Amino acid sequence: MAPLASEPLLYSTVASHLTGGSHIFSLHKPRSTPLEYRYLVWRSVFLLLLMEVQVMRRLYETIYVLNYSSSARMHVFGYLTGLFFYTAAPLSLCCVCAPEVFKFAANQLKEFIVKGKNQMPVIEFDLWGYMSSLMKLGWPSWLGAAIFIWGWIHQHRCHAILGLLQEHKEQEGEYGIPHGDWFEIVSSPHYLAEIVIYGGLVVASGGSDLTIWLLFGFVASNLIFAAAETQRWYLHKFDNYPSNRFAIIPFVY
């Protein structure tokens, strides 16, 4: 990725294609790229970094925190939906430049076939240059990141509470009522936190990308439905379940 700057650039990575630079060995001529487009590209990178932070934490929790029992099963429809979602979600976050990335990859493959490995340009990695460009993103990106981190932290806390309950169930043979953090106000705070997380991505994107709004709408509608089912299960399972807890949206639903 090339820096957010208006001067001509010479880069040998995907930035050559996305931001208008060129490389001496490239088969493709340089083109001028507006600074506004470079900003959109860097914003997409920022959103993808946030998504990576989320999925890596979820992977860690799945292995070490949530303590699924050996008898736990997932419906095949849910499994296929998950595969679709985590393929579509990153593409939604970078749809402004995804076609260009695929085009760049195809061009690189052509160059590799024509020239061979030894004649391919050396990949450059400038960490400070990357950080500098990210720091130049506008306030919506950083406000969205703050909202994202807020939801991210609470979701981890709620998953830790659920993980402890699962341990208690295995030891005592009975599932208990969760308490602590956002569980004091809603029955599915981990779902609420997920909505907050994707709301943060909407804000970080500037709110002008329809595909990210559609992503947010899919997440919110799916989790609200799941939270309603969870609420009914809690009320049926426990006679002493707190009556002041909403399903997922505090003081609303």
TrEMBL record:
TM ranges: 39-56, 76-106, 127-153, 210-228
Biological-process GO terms, alphabetical: dolichol-linked oligosaccharide biosynthetic process; polyprenol catabolic process
Topology within the bilayer: Multi-pass membrane protein
Domain of life: Eukaryota
Assigned keywords, A-Z: Membrane, Transmembrane, Transmembrane helix
Gene Ontology CC, one term: endoplasmic reticulum
PROSITE patterns per UniProt: S5A_REDUCTASE
Key word Transmembrane helix present: yes
Domain named 3-oxo-5-alpha-steroid 4-dehydrogenase C-terminal: residues: 142-253
One function term, GO molecular function aspect: 3-oxo-5-alpha-steroid 4-dehydrogenase activity
Cell location: Endomembrane system
Biological or metabolic pathway of the protein: Protein modification; protein glycosylation
Protein name per its UniProtKB record: 3-oxo-5-alpha-steroid 4-dehydrogenase C-terminal domain-containing protein
Taxonomic source organism: Vitis rotundifolia (Muscadine grape)
